[in-house]
Amino acid sequence: MLSTHVHSARPVDLPGVAAVLQEAFSDKMRRIFTNQPEKIRTLLEAAYSGPVHRGYDGVLVAERGGRIIGTLLIEPMFYTSQENRAFEHLAVRELGLLRMLWGSFLLWLVTHRPQPGEGYISDLGVAPDCQGEGVGRLLLEHAEEWARGRERDRLTLWVAGSNERALHLYENFGFQRTRTRNSMLTRLTFGIRRWYFMEKPLR
Questions:
Q1: Lowest mean pLDDT among 47-61, 98-112, 140-154
Q2: What letter would DSSP give residue 10?
Q3: What dihedral angle (degrees, nearest 10) is formed by the CA atoms of 29, 35, 39, 43?
Q4: Taking the model in full, what pTM does it have?
Q5: Are 154 and 199 in contact (CB under 8 A)?
Q6: How many CA atoms lie within 13 A of 50 on its CB side?
Q7: Torsion of the alpha carbons at 152, 166, 111 and 174, rounded to the nearest 10
Q8: End-to-end CA distance of the chain
Q9: Domains identified in the chain and CATH numbers
Q10: CA angle 54, 57, 62 (to 5 degrees)
């Protein structure tokens, strides 16, 4: 088997990042954006483009044989006003105003605002044909190294209570459940009512 390397995403990696996220979270992406994979990938690529082009290195990718097979985002990741406006215009063009507003509401439901010292992990996705091969753990190992190097004192994440596979991965990696949230809104929109907030101290 070809070896897997993890590194910070470069602009050339963004189509691969978008493809992995679209495939790994296909149901969630259809609910937020549209049922057209090409439009989803266009929007995901645009969402990461500004920070990556400016040199933000907290978007990690797992690469094997020249193919992006996994990705992970460490937040906070900031956007300029110009980047926000450009993405809004793109989203309206691709989805229409009403669908864009609906998608923004759904994203708000699952958004977390990291506190000082927090390295918040979101968008950990692995290509479906590469799942179960240790790619997710490898990304987490590099995320921890990244966070320690930037003096973050903890890694955090939210995970769906029904995602047994992810819970097993995170708990084996040293995360502990510290908070539970039950939401009827996410039950109605995503089919997920219970969420766990998990933390791994780094100090």
A1: 98-112
A2: -
A3: -20
A4: 0.94
A5: yes
A6: 13
A7: -20
A8: 36
A9: 4-155 (3.40.630.30)
A10: 125
Please list, in sequence order, all residues whose beta carbon lies within 8 angstroms of the beta carbon of residue 70, skipping any fewer than 6 positions away.
20, 61, 62, 124, 125, 126, 127, 130, 135, 136, 138, 139
CB proximity list for 165: less than 8 A, separation 6 or greater: none
Q: Tell me how far apart the alpha carbons of residues 62 and 136 are, in angstroms, rounded to a whole number.
A: 9
Pairing of strands 176-182, 4-8: unpaired
Supply φ then ψ for residue 64, to 5 degrees. Answer: -140, 120
Q: From CA 123, how far away is CA 103, in angstroms rounded?
A: 16
The crossing angle, in degrees rounded to 10, of helices 97-109 and 81-95 is: 120
Q: Side chain identity at 118, as an amino acid letter?
A: E
Take residue 163 and report the two structure tokens written for it.
């995602």
Give the span between the Cα atoms of 121 and 197, in whole angstroms: 11
Residue-level length of the chain: 203
**pLDDT tens-digit series, residues 11-57:** 999 999 999 999 999 888 888 888 898 999 999 999 999 999 999 99
